[in-house]
């Protein structure tokens, strides 16, 4: 079955430190790949997406993600975290020709001052 | 201002009652979706619609119903048959079924 794994349920970093959130997907075909962010009690905001082309994708709020086909991964990174980045982050995939977004369980990010 | 609106933000329901959650978009998107979110889990697809007057079941459609009479609107009814309806419900839309999905602010439903 198609699935998305976010291995880290909670991550805590200090403000100004670098961040990497992991995401792996199952199934052989290369899907469309997304990262969304959710603040408490809010909807999801799209951070970035990968459809094809350059495997390093730039998004909003200083985030970037790198698609690695050999590892079936799409990890999210930020060089310097701000306190306002504290939120829950969801990785999602969509296989070509299908409407369905498949979500990971999310990673909750806490930022220490 | 273009976007997706959901109402109400909070909804309380007694057991045995049906409730309807509203989702409206003015983005001129063809496709609309309903997801359910539970603590510690990702989003799960309830129903989706690619075009007016057409919709398909997602992974967890039991106990829910939808309609798509207008392009802008995709209301979700949570029926009394839904065993555990307390959750956060998110509506999304996209230009077409395989395009990027954008989300509304959500409705939190609590069954008393």
Describe this structure in words.
The complex is a heterodimer of chains A (113) and B (112). Chain A is an all-beta fold and 113 residues long. Chain A is built from no helices and twelve strands. In chain A, a hairpin with a 5-residue loop joins strand 7 (56-58) and strand 8. Chain B is an all-beta fold and 112 residues long. In chain B, 0% of the residues lie in helices and 50% in strands. In chain B, the strands form two sheets. In chain B, strands 2, 4, 5, 6, 9, 10 and 11 form a seven-stranded mixed beta sheet that branches. A four-stranded antiparallel beta sheet of chain B has the order 1-3-8-7, with no helix packed on it. The termini of chain B are far apart.
Write the layout of secondary structure elements.
The complex is a heterodimer of chains A (113) and B (112).
Chain A: E1 4-5, E2 10-14, E3 19-21, E4 24-25, E5 32-38, E6 44-50, E7 56-58, E8 64-68, E9 73-78, E10 87-94, E11 102-103, E12 107-112
Parallel strand pairs in A: 2-12
Antiparallel strand pairs in A: 1-4, 3-9, 5-6, 5-10, 7-8, 8-9, 10-11, 10-12
Chain B: E1 4-7, E2 10-13, E3 19-25, E4 31-37, E5 43-51, E6 54-57, E7 64-66, E8 76-78, E9 87-94, E10 102-103, E11 107-111
Parallel strand pairs in B: 2-11
Antiparallel strand pairs in B: 1-3, 3-8, 4-5, 4-9, 5-6, 7-8, 9-10, 9-11
